[in-house]
Design goal:
two-stranded antiparallel sheet; 273 residues
């Protein structure tokens, strides 16, 4: 089993439902994050914290104390971080369906320098066609990214950014900034010269990155809140109101899906092995 699948399979149905609940607030345009705790070999989520449209800051000490008070989770059980990117200006931007340089840089450096595994999870909205209704809907998707060890990071960097020396990357030099191009337009770039989007795709070739559709299989998918969560001011008429009402009234009666039954959207490792 790919590393990313192995990590994903540890989430309990309760944790997956909480992911979807937090990300169903895409219309509020706010980021969110939780700590992931290992509870007897299963992954559970701590309490959620919300930020702004493109930024979130938390106090690790206060957040750990809150999780201990609310759920009884110990600091020794804390494993990883999961966060959500919402819509921005009511629109879906491809770049926000990946981990940003801010999200990825410190974890990359930690994994590389210590030769240890680090895992991240990102939940984001994806607009697609519901094969049951023919309507455009939002599905919550989760991107799983694993930094397994120094050797694999070097291989992935060589594939995606052959001119970059991974040993020279720091949280400061790897952080993207807005840079003006010769034609006057703006682009994102960093001092280390890393294309982080390409790097994430390269990790996928080693079974270290994958994507799942949290709403379930395309055929016979169950109705969840996010399947009908629309910014009506920007997407008027996209979803039928009757379907929305049905989804809201039935939400609590639905059996929550487990990590094993959720549809895999992208697993690059299957193409390279």
């Amino acid at each position: 089993m790919s590393l990313w699948k192995s990590e994903w399979s540890k989430f309990t149905p309760k944790a997956i439902q909480r992911m979807k609940t937090h990300s169903d607030k895409t219309h509020d345009e706010r980021e969110w994050m939780c700590y992931v705790y290992d509870v007897n070999g299963n992954y559970e989520l701590g309490e959620v914290s919300y930020g702004g449209e493109s930024r979130i800051e938390v106090s690790p000490a206060k957040k750990s104390a809150q999780d201990r008070l609310m759920n009884g989770y110990k600091e020794s059980q804390r494993k990883w971080t999961i966060h959500g990117h919402p819509l921005k200006d009511g629109k879906i931007y491809t770049g926000r369906q990946y981990f940003s340089s801010t999200d990825i840089c410190r974890e990359f450096v930690k994994s590389y320098q210590n030769d240890e595994m680090v895992v991240q999870f990102l939940v984001y909205p994806h607009k697609q066609i519901d094969t049951n209704t023919g309507q455009e809907v939002f599905h919550n998707r989760c991107r799983v990214l694993v930094f397994p060890n120094r050797e694999t990071l070097v291989k992935a960097m060589r594939i995606s950014n052959p001119s970059v020396d991974p040993s020279k990357i720091t949280p400061e030099t790897g952080q993207n900034q807005q840079v003006k191009q010769q034609d006057g337009s703006m682009t994102l770039a960093n001092q280390a010269g890393v294309d982080w989007f390409a790097f994430q795709e390269a990790l996928g070739q080693f079974g270290c990155m994958g994507i799942i559709d949290l709403e379930g299989p395309k055929s016979g998918s169950r109705v969840f809140n996010s399947e009908n969560r629309i910014r009506m001011g920007n997407f008027a008429g996209i979803a039928a109101i009757g379907v929305i009402l049905y989804g809201l009234t039935k939400l609590r009666k639905i059996n929550i899906q487990s990590a094993e039954t959720i549809q895999i959207v992208d697993d690059l490792a299957s193409f390279y092995h």
